[in-house]
Design brief:
The complex is a heterodimer of chains A (347) and B (616). Chain A has twelve helices and 13 strands. Chain A is of the alpha/beta class and 347 residues long. In chain A, strand 7, helix 7 and strand 8 form a beta-alpha-beta unit. Chain B is an alpha/beta fold and 616 residues long. In chain B, helix 17 links the parallel strand 21 and strand 22. Chain B folds into four domains: 209 residues, 3-Layer(aba) Sandwich (Pyruvate-ferredoxin Oxidoreductase, domain 3); 180 residues, Thiamin diphosphate (ThDP)-binding fold, Pyr/PP domains (Rossmann fold), CATH 3.40.50.970; 80 residues, no CATH class; 111 residues, 3-Layer(aba) Sandwich (Rossmann fold), CATH 3.40.50. Classes of the chains: A alpha/beta (347), B alpha/beta (616). The interface between A and B is large, with 58 and 75 residues.
C-alpha cells in the first residue's frame, strides 16, 4: 500500500474502506482556508492507517478550527464543546471509553488564550489523544483580533501591531511532558500527513501545532502567519517518513543521517536530518532549537520532540481492559455484603 | 472550691433538685486545629451508644489552625436533632473566646473551664466547674508533643462525670475513634479517666443536666450527608468522578474515593471507576459531560462558587442533552466570607443555571437517608432525561453527623435511559422509526434516543453534538423553525421530568388552615417547630419539597390551605420566589420565612416567624 499522496490512493484500505468513508460534511470555511487542507490530511491519515472511523471521537472547542471536526470521519461521534474546554471533554470521554481514538482540533485562541489552563493540564496528564492546533495567530470567527500566538511585531490589516510575545505551544508542551510534539504548516502537506500518522500511532497526548494561514484576516503583507510568509520562511528540520505497523519495515537507513523512532503501535517514524545533529528525543536540544528559532524569527517545522514510551493518563489509572462504559451493573454496584460492611462501620 | 459553687445556687426560677434528662445541648468551644474533633466525636458517639437520639454539628471557621470553632452536641429524648439556639452545657477550651463564651451562656447553664482563668466570680447564675486542665495534662500525659491534643480528652472525662455518661460507652467510642490503634487508645484512655476521676473527687454536681440510657438508637448508624451521598454514588455505579476541592463538598469526593478503593474493584483488582482531581470546576464539569456523552455514569461535586464556574458547561449539557450529576453542597456565597457556614444559597440560580432558556432537575435531600437514595435517583434521572441533574445538599446536612437507619440495599436496577448500544438495537430502532435521529421525539415524551461513541460501526449511529443550533438529526441549523421545534421538545421533556421527579413529603391532617413548605436540611428544625406549635395548640400542615420542577402536589397543597409559609435558609426567599413563579396557584397565600445567619436553622426561628406573622 502506498502511504504517499503522489500516487493515486487505492480504492480500499486494510479495513476495506474507501477514503470517502473517512469524509464528513462540506466545509463552510472561507475558500482557501488552511484548515481545510489540514482536514484533508487528517482524513487521508485515518484512511492510510486503516483506523476504524466509528472509533474516532472528534472533539473541539469554539472557533473556525473547531468547526472542522464535522468535516471528516462522520462515522465517528463528534462533540463541539465550549470555548477552550475541549481538553476536559476529551479527558472525560477517554476515561469513559479508552477504546476510542480521540482527536481534538483547536485553534490558537481556543488553546493558547481561553483554553490555556485546560491545555496545560491535558498535557500534564498525558491523556491519549491527538491535539491539533490550527494556528493562524488571529481570531477568525470574531473577525480578526490577535491571539496569544501572534508573533511579536506582527501587524493586523487594521494596522494594529502586536506588542506582546507569542506563546510557543510546542515549548509549553515539551515543558509539560508531552511525548509527541510537532510543528507543521498547512502548506506542507506531505510532512503534515506523516506527522498526523505518527500522532495516530502514538499513545499519549500528541500535539501538532500547525501554522494554518487565515486567508481573510491574517494573510496580508505584514503578517508573520500569512501563507506567503510561511511558505518563504519554512525550514523543515527533518524529512519525515512513516512506516505503519502493518507494513514491512525496511531496515536499511543511515543512522548518521537518519533517525528511526518506534512508536506505541509498532509504527516507525523515519527522520532524515536536515539540521545537523538535531536529536528530537533530547529535551534540552528541543528547547534550544525552539528558543533559537524564536530569536532568529525562523519558522522551523518537523517532529520537534518525541518520547514514545511515557505512560499515558489512563495507564496510570490502571483501568480495566474493558471500557468503563461497558461494565454491567453487577460489576459496578458493590454487593450486599459490601453495603453491610459500610453500615456496620458506621454503627 | 465546691463550697464556692454551693454558694452560687442556680438562679433559674424553680430550680432545685429537678433534673433535665436526655434533653439538652452541649457546646464545646475550642481553637481550630487543636484536635478536639476526636474528643467531640467520642462524646457524641458515647451518648448515641447509650440509646439517646443525638446530633453533632461542627460550626467551624475557614481556617486550619487557630481560629475559634464550636462543636454542638444535642441529645434529645424526643428525637429532635436540629440545632438549638440555647446552650445548656458549655465546655470552654479556647482561652481566646472563653470570656465571651461565658458571658453569652444562658442563665442556668453548666460551664466547664480552665481553673487558672479565674472566671469563678464572673457570673453567679451559672453552674461553674473550674478544672485544672493544664495541670492535669502534665500529670496524665508524659509525651509533651501529645499534650496539646490529649488535653481535649480530659474534658471528655469531666463531661462523662458531669452528665453521667457511661464510661464503658466512652471507652467503646474511643476504640472506634482510633480504630483500635493501641498506643493512641492507651494515651487517650488515661487522659479521659484522669479527667473523670479528678472531677469526681474534687467537684460536686449542682446543675440539672443528666443522661440516662434509652433504647432509641439501637441498630442505627451515624453518618454525615456527604458520606451518605458518596455511598449512594458508589451504589449507583458511578464510573467517572471529576472534582475540584471546595468546602463543603470535598469530603463527599473523598468519601467516594475511600469507598471505591475498598468496594469498587473487579476480580483483577482494577478499579471499576476513574477519579480525576481536575484543575478547576470548569474542567470538572467538562470531564463529567465528556464521560456522560461517551456513556459513563459521571459526576462532579462542588459548592456555590464551583456551580458558577460550571454554568457554561451546564448550558451546553442542557442543549446537547448529555447526562451528568452535579452535587452542590451549598454554603454561604463567595470564597472569602463565610465559606464554612451553611446556606440554601444556590437554589434559584442553579434551577435556571446558564445562558439562554435553561431549567434543570434539582433533587433536594432532607436527611442523610435521602442523600443516599436521591444520589442514586439522580443518576437514573440524568440518564433518563439526558441532562445535567443537580443534587442540592448543604453544609449542615453534608458535613455534620446525623443518626439514621442503615441504608437498605437498592432492590431495583438502574435506568440508563433511551440508549441504543448495539447494531441490532439500531436496526430495530430504524425499523420502528424509519431512522435514527438524535434529537427527534419519537415517543412523545420529549426524550430522544442516543447512541454512544465508538460502539456501533454504522454511519447511521454516529452524530455530531453541539449546542442549541441543530436539527432533529443533529446537523447544524440556524433556521428559526428548527430552533423553535427543539426548544419546544426540551420544554416537553421538562414536563415529563416534572412527572418523574421525587414527589414532596406531605403531612396533612392537622386540621389547620396553615401550611409550611420547606426543603432540604430545614426539615429537622421544621419538624421540631411543628411539634412546638402543636403543643401550643397551633398545629400546621407540612409539605417538604424534594425536587424541582414542582410537581402538581404543590398547587393542591396551596389550594387546601389559607396561608402557606415557605421556609428558606437564604435572605431572598429563593424557593419562595420559585413557588411564586411556578406553583400555578393562588400565590397570594404564600408567606416567606427566611433564616440567613450562617448557622443551621433552628425550630424557634420557624415558630417565631409563624407566630409573628399570624398575629398581624
Amino acid at each position: 500500500m502506498s502511504t504517499t499522496r503522489e500516487t493515486s490512493a487505492p480504492a480500499t484500505n486494510r479495513v476495506g474502506l474507501t477514503v470517502k468513508d473517512y469524509g464528513g460534511l462540506k466545509s463552510t470555511l472561507c475558500v482557501g482556508c488552511g484548515h481545510d487542507v489540514i482536514t484533508r490530511q487528517i482524513t487521508q491519515a485515518f484512511f492510510d492507517m486503516g483506523t476504524p472511523p466509528y472509533k474516532v471521537a472528534k472533539l473541539s472547542g469554539i472557533g473556525c478550527s473547531s468547526k472542522t471536526t464535522a468535516y471528516f470521519a462522520d462515522r465517528g461521534h463528534g462533540f463541539n464543546a465550549v470555548h477552550g474546554r475541549m481538553p476536559a471533554v476529551a479527558t472525560g470521554a477517554m476515561l469513559a471509553n479508552h477504546s476510542l481514538l480521540a482527536i481534538g482540533v483547536s485553534g490558537d485562541g481556543d488553546t493558547a488564550s481561553i483554553g490555556a489552563g485546560q491545555f496545560v493540564h491535558l498535557l500534564r496528564r498525558n491523556v491519549p489523544m491527538i491535539y491539533i492546533v490550527e494556528n493562524n495567530g488571529v481570531y477568525g470567527l470574531t473577525k480578526g483580533q490577535f491571539s496569544a500566538t501572534a508573533d511579536l511585531g506582527s501587524k493586523l490589516k487594521t494596522g494594529v501591531v502586536n506588542d506582546l510575545p507569542a506563546i510557543d505551544l510546542c515549548a509549553l508542551a515539551i515543558e509539560l511532558g508531552c511525548g509527541y510534539v510537532a510543528r507543521s504548516f498547512s502548506g506542507d502537506m506531505k510532512q503534515l500527513l506523516a506527522l498526523i500518522k505518527g500522532a495516530i500511532a502514538h499513545r499519549g497526548t500528541a500535539l501538532l501545532d500547525v501554522i494554518s494561514p487565515c486567508v481573510t484576516f491574517n494573510n496580508h503583507e505584514d503578517s508573520t502567519k500569512s501563507y506567503k510568509w510561511a511558505k518563504d520562511h519554512e525550514i523543515p528540520i527533518q524529512e519525515i517518513g512513516f512506516i505503519p505497523f502493518f507494513d514491512e519495515i525496511y531496515v536499511e537507513y543511515d543512522p548518521g543521517t537518519t533517525q528511526d523512532v518506534q512508536l506505541h503501535d509498532g509504527s516507525h517514524i523515519r527522520l532524515k536530518k536536515l539540521r545537523a545533529d538535531y536529536d528530537p528525543t533530547d529535551k534540552n536540544a528541543a528547547f534550544g532549537l525552539l528558543r533559537e528559532a524564536t530569536e532568529k524569527q525562523e519558522f522551523l517545522t518537523g517532529l520537534i520532540y518525541v518520547q514514545p514510551t511515557k505512560k499515558d493518563f489512563l495507564s496510570l489509572l490502571d483501568l480495566p481492559a474493558q471500557p468503563l462504559t461497558t461494565l454491567p451493573l453487577e460489576r459496578v454496584r458493590p454487593g450486599r455484603e459490601a453495603l453491610s460492611q459500610m453500615m456496620e462501620e458506621l454503627k | 472550691m465546691s463550697v464556692v459553687l454551693e454558694e452560687k445556687a442556680p438562679a433559674e426560677p424553680g430550680a432545685g433538685p429537678r433534673t433535665i434528662v436526655n434533653d439538652f445541648s452541649i457546646h464545646v468551644a475550642t481553637a481550630n486545629g487543636s484536635g478536639s474533633m476526636s474528643s467531640n466525636n467520642i462524646l457524641m458517639r458515647a451518648i448515641f451508644q447509650m440509646g439517646i437520639p443525638v446530633s453533632g454539628k461542627n460550626l467551624f471557621p475557614s481556617n486550619i489552625q487557630g481560629l475559634p470553632t464550636w462543636f454542638t452536641i444535642r441529645a434529645s429524648k424526643d428525637g429532635f436533632i436540629a440545632r438549638r439556639r440555647d446552650v445548656d452545657v458549655l465546655i470552654c477550651m479556647n482561652p481566646e473566646t472563653v470570656h465571651e463564651d461565658v458571658k453569652a451562656a444562658p442563665p442556668g447553664a453548666a460551664v466547664i473551664f480552665e481553673e487558672s482563668l479565674n472566671l469563678q466570680s464572673s457570673r453567679n447564675d451559672l453552674h461553674l466547674y473550674p478544672i485544672p486542665f493544664q495541670k492535669l495534662v502534665l500529670e496524665l500525659v508524659q509525651d509533651g508533643k501529645l499534650r496539646r491534643l490529649a488535653v481535649n480528652m480530659i474534658y471528655v472525662g469531666v463531661a462523662a462525670w458531669l452528665l453521667d455518661i457511661d464510661m464503658e460507652e466512652i471507652d467503646r467510642a474511643l476504640v472506634k475513634q482510633f480504630k483500635g490503634k493501641a498506643k493512641a487508645v492507651e494515651i487517650n484512655r488515661a487522659a479521659i479517666a484522669g479527667g473523670y476521676e479528678w472531677a469526681a473527687q474534687n467537684r460536686r454536681k449542682t446543675d440539672p443536666f443528666r443522661l440516662e440510657r434509652m433504647n432509641k438508637t439501637a441498630g442505627k448508624i451515624i453518618i454525615d450527608g456527604n458520606a451518605a451521598a458518596a455511598i449512594g454514588c458508589a451504589m449507583a455505579g458511578v464510573q467517572v468522578l471529576a472534582w475540584y476541592p471546595i468546602t463543603p463538598s470535598s469530603s463527599l469526593a473523598e468519601a467516594f474515593i475511600d469507598y471505591c478503593r475498598r468496594f469498587r474493584r473487579d476480580e483483577n483488582g482494577s478499579p471499576t471507576y476513574a477519579i480525576v482531581q481536575a484543575e478547576d470546576e470548569l474542567a470538572a464539569a467538562g470531564m463529567a459531560l465528556g464521560a456522560g456523552w461517551a456513556g459513563a455514569r459521571a459526576m462532579t461535586t462542588t459548592s456555590g462558587p464551583g456551580i458558577s464556574l460550571m454554568s457554561e458547561f451546564v448550558g451546553l449539557g442542557y442543549y446537547a442533552e448529555v447526562p451528568a450529576v452535579i452535587v452542590d453542597v451549598q454554603r454561604v456565597g463567595p470564597s472569602t466570607g463565610l465559606p464554612t457556614r451553611t446556606m440554601q444559597g444556590d437554589i434559584l440560580s442553579t434551577y435556571f443555571l446558564s445562558h439562554g432558556d435553561a431549567k434543570h432537575i434539582l433533587l433536594i435531600p432532607g436527611s442523610v437517608e435521602e442523600c443516599y437514595h436521591l444520589a442514586m435517583e439522580a443518576f437514573d434521572l440524568a440518564e433518563r432525561f439526558q441532562t445535567p441533574v443537580f443534587l442540592m445538599s448543604d453544609l449542615d446536612l453534608g458535613m455534620n453527623n446525623w443518626m439514621a437507619d442503615p441504608f437498605p440495599y437498592p432492590e431495583k436496577g438502574i435506568d440508563r435511559g433511551k440508549v441504543i448500544r448495539t447494531e441490532a438495537e439500531l436496526k430495530d430502532h430504524i425499523r420502528r422509526f424509519q431512522e435514527f435521529a438524535r434529537y427527534k421525539d419519537v415517543d412523545g415524551d420529549g426524550i430522544p434516543y442516543r447512541t454512544l461513541p465508538g460502539e456501533i460501526d454504522n454511519l447511521a449511529a454516529a452524530y455530531f453534538t453541539r449546542g442549541s443550533g441543530h436539527t432533529e438529526r443533529a446537523t447544524y441549523s440556524e433556521k428559526p423553525e428548527d430552533y423553535e421545534r427543539n426548544m419546544e421538545r426540551l420544554a416537553r421533556k421538562f414536563e415529563t421530568a416534572r412527572r418523574s421527579v421525587p414527589r414532596p413529603v406531605i403531612e396533612t391532617g392537622s386540621g389547620s388552615r396553615i401550611g409550611l413548605i420547606a426543603y432540604g436540611s430545614s426539615d429537622f428544625a421544621v419538624q421540631e417547630a411543628r411539634h412546638l406549635l402543636s403543643r401550643k395548640g397551633k398545629p400546621v400542615d407540612y409539605l417538604r419539597l424534594r425536587a424541582l420542577p414542582l410537581t402538581d402536589d404543590v398547587p393542591a397543597f396551596l389550594a387546601a390551605h389559607d396561608r402557606v409559609y415557605v421556609i428558606d435558609q437564604n435572605r431572598d426567599g429563593q424557593m419562595y420566589d420559585i413557588l411564586r413563579l411556578e406553583s400555578g396557584a393562588d400565590v397570594s397565600k404564600l408567606r416567606s420565612i427566611r433564616h440567613y445567619d450562617g448557622f443551621p436553622l433552628d425550630a424557634e426561628t420557624v415558630v417565631e416567624g409563624i407566630e409573628a406573622a399570624e398575629m398581624n
